[in-house]
Amino acid sequence: MPEGDTVWRACKRLDQALGGQELIRTDFRVPTLATTDLSGRTVIEVVARGKHLLMRLSGGLTLHSHFRMDGSWHLYRPGEQWRGGPTHQVRAVLETAPWTAVGYRLPVLDLVATEAEGTVVGHLGPDLLSPDFDRDHAIANLQTEPDRTISEALLDQRNLAGIGNFYRTEVCFLLGLHPWLPVSAVDIAAAVDLSRRLLKANLRNGAQVSTGNDRPGQRTWVFERAGKPCRRCRTTISTATIGEPPRDRITYWCPACQPEPKDRATC
């Protein structure tokens, strides 16, 4: 699933290509926007808010999208062949003179008044990649449920926005936190600070890296490495699901580097 850094990079590419450009043709292939025509409007800017993408247009409208598991926006020059997937997966086409933006497999795509963006992103906690990130607010949000597992708390976008399964898993490893450890037993400030550092560091990369090694197969400590030896101690990496359906997620951890709490029942 795309996380905060992935969405931020997508917004930057879209903003650089479309910002200041007039839309000359739009084609929406979702029922709620099927008759919508945004041609003639200018793309003012494209910004990220956590995992949400906000394309602000002239006339006070914002096109809001969310990638969820596998959505994406692709940019093509006029006449260039589209390569983001089969055409039946296209949900939106936004055409300007120099570029065409094509949205594939977008599960969330809606149009709201720019002044009403809070209706789609107002529930989010502080954005880890925002230049005015409110660290104290994020810490306070996480501490409101002290008995919740740190894994679930970090993933909850109402606490702080931008963390997905990759960062949640890697942050827990780097801080030696068992996935089921309660928030009350965690240095929350350290978890928030490390999460932000990792996301910001990866803004410069095309891939998500937590080990400092950008070579394929070497980028993560435990994420998606179930059954493989820990890079630190060679203990076999464990995996399990955590959380309640439908929000349960697979997590990964090293049983030696992230020891299980002595009284798991209290976690």
Key traits:
single chain; 267 residues; alpha+beta; N-terminal domain of MutM-like DNA repair proteins; Helicase, Ruva Protein, domain 3; 2 domains; four-stranded antiparallel beta sheet; metal-binding; damaged DNA binding
Description:
Pfam families: Fapy_DNA_glyco, H2TH. Residues 221-259 form the FPG-type domain. Its EC number is 4.2.99.18. It is an enzyme of class 4 (lyase). This is DNA-(apurinic or apyrimidinic site) lyase. This protein is an alpha+beta fold and 267 residues long. The chain folds into 2 domains: 4-121, N-terminal domain of MutM-like DNA repair proteins (Alpha-Beta Barrel), CATH 3.20.190.10; 135-266, Orthogonal Bundle (Helicase, Ruva Protein, domain 3). It contains 6 helices and 10 strands. The strands form 3 sheets. Strands 1-6-7-5 form a 4-stranded antiparallel beta sheet, with helices on one face. A 4-stranded antiparallel beta sheet has the order 2-3-4-8. Strands 9-10 form a two-stranded antiparallel sheet.
Number of strands: 10
Do you know the CATH topology of the largest domain? Helicase, Ruva Protein, domain 3
> Overall pLDDT, averaged?
94
The appropriate CATH architecture of the largest domain is Orthogonal Bundle
Biggest sheet: strand arrangement: 1-6-7-5
Shape type: elongated
The oligomerization state is single chain
Strand content: 15-25%
- What Rg do the Cα atoms give? 20 Å
Sheet/helix structural class:
alpha+beta
Spans of 5+ residues with little confidence (pLDDT < 50)? none
InterPro entries: FPG_cat (IPR012319), FPG_N (IPR035937), H2TH_FPG (IPR015886), Nei2_N (IPR044090), Ribosomal_uS13-like_H2TH (IPR010979), Znf_DNA_glyclase/AP_lyase (IPR000214)
Family: Belongs to the FPG family.
Domain FPG-type: 221-259
GO molecular function, one term: damaged DNA binding
